[in-house]
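Anyone up for a design puzzle?
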């Protein structure tokens, strides 16, 4: 079983971006993302309607961090603390050395290679620091950008579940992608 601790909080950097802890100072930006229909288009969760929703989500992030059940980072450009996106690992199955990855990025920063850099940092951390065997992603099959990002990073589609998720009055499909820890020579 994995023995996970996020204390001290791991700050990850590529030189161009920094993945840092999400704090209450990010609440307004988090609200902006989670209330934006374009950002949330393929994240099948209710839109945030107030700052209270942002603070409730921040509490959920903090609670997961305290119990070592999940970790979420703010994506920021190097030298600029403003959060431009988020990425996290959660739904840990410690006994199976598995976790799920999730992410979102402000549309102003799409198609700039930022999410690819963040992916590299988090995947490396998951496999080489946490000791994960498998990282999983569950996506809305209509999200072509996410599908392309996953496939570019070696994830393979292992499953497709028809109408397994009820949201907003509709039954939605889910595509499941996985990446296995590379075999060490």
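Challenge accepted. My sequence:
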């Amino acid at each position: 079983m994995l023995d996970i601790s996020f204390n001290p909080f791991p700050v990850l950097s590529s030189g161009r971006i920094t993945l840092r802890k999400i704090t209450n100072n990010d609440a307004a930006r988090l609200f902006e993302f989670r209330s934006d229909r374009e950002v949330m288009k393929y994240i099948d969760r209710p839109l945030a309607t107030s700052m209270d929703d942002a603070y409730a989500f921040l509490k959920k992030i903090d609670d997961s961090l305290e119990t070592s059940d999940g970790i979420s980072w703010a994506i920021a450009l190097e030298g600029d603390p403003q959060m431009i996106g988020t990425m996290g690992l959660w739904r840990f199955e410690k006994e199976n050395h598995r976790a799920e990855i999730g992410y979102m990025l402000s549309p102003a920063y799409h198609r700039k290679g930022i999410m690819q850099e963040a992916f590299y940092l988090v995947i490396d951390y998951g496999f080489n620091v946490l000791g994960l065997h498998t990282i999983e992603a569950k996506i809305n099959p209509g999200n072509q950008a996410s599908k392309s990002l996953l496939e570019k990073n070696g994830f393979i589609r292992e499953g497709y579940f028809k109408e397994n998720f009820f949201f907003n009055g509709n039954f939605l499909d889910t595509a499941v992608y996985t990446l296995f820890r590379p075999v060490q020579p």
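A detail worth pointing out: The CA atoms of residues 74 and 86 lie 5 Å apart.
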